[in-house]
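Why do we care about 3D structure at all? Because function follows from shape, and shape follows, mostly, from sequence. That is the central idea of this module. The next example makes it concrete: a single protein chain, its amino acid sequence, and then its structure expressed as tokens.
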Amino acid sequence: MTNIADLPDFDMAEWLPDEAGVAEYLTVVMEENDPAALAKAQRTIARARDMTEMAAKTRIGREALCKALTHSASTRYKTILGYLRRFELRW
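And the structure:
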């Protein structure tokens, strides 16, 4: 029998292979209507993608994006919208 402690850690970032997966993940998170879950999802996606690429595509400076995605940051609405527009989501 396998012990829970022996199981590998689950990292959602490893399960976001393409833009469609990222869009689906963000759509599910947005349906939860939980700002903390949205912030966590943004950090997960940033880990799954190159941060410099993400900054360029969101037109947010790399340092500003890193700061916005920290656990202690109070992510501003403009930052979130710029970040989400990169994935062309419709809701």
